[in-house]
Amino acid sequence: MVSTTLITGASSGIGEELASRFAQRGEDLVLVARRRDRLDALADRIGDEFGVDVEVIDMDLADVHAARELRDRVGSRRIDTVINNAGFGLSGDVADLDPEDLDAMVKVNCLALTGITSRFLGDMVARNHGTIVNIASTAAYQPVPHMAVYAASKAFVLSLTEALWAETAEHGVRVLAACPGPTETEFFEHAGRKAAVGRMRSAGQVADALMEALDGRSPSFVDGWLNRLIAKGSSFLPKAWVLKIAAAAVN
């Protein structure tokens, strides 16, 4: 039986790169994003290049019922791997940002991710097989003033995913949180270039690192050695220092 991978946020960046990686392994795909034209173009390219079946679902994951709608549209089709890649960030102080935009960010980064995960995870546990990958961020490792809600949403993703790793370890399900740092994607069209702290990695590099990490046993990984140093090093510093450093980096 051919495996099927579902990827959200698949129309560009890391999601697009992962679609190619899983298709290269011979897996069929369900690609989810808002932009139907990009999904169709990607599906045509991947289908022609790798000879796999590609289904596209265009929808806005900021809708409060998005996860339920997605599960309904997938129907009875077996999903072996779910990659929750969709997400976005905004820079600026909470008091200055549009509350509706902040609501949408939490809905996409947290609510949709949790709802999609829970709606496919039960089937994976029942058959003792499956993979869940949630894209977090190096921002998950410390509060980030001027990107407070984004960093908090990614801390949620990291915490949730590592807990799921423990819950499902005895059920044959692989759960992984990927924590990329600054990556050359459309993310910074929303967040602003000031949010790019450190050396940029390409989406392809992140995708390659993620595919390698899937073969390991860790519940999470940080992409890139410099990103690992920055993310993990914050735990050894006084919190006041961490907040000042993080604030200066994005302001």
Automatic annotation (TrEMBL):
Keywords: Oxidoreductase. The keyword Oxidoreductase applies. GO terms for molecular function: oxidoreductase activity. The keyword Cell cycle does not apply. Signal peptide: none annotated. SUPFAM superfamilies: NAD(P)-binding Rossmann-fold domains. Belongs to the short-chain dehydrogenases/reductases (SDR) family. This is SDR family NAD(P)-dependent oxidoreductase. It comes from Rothia koreensis.
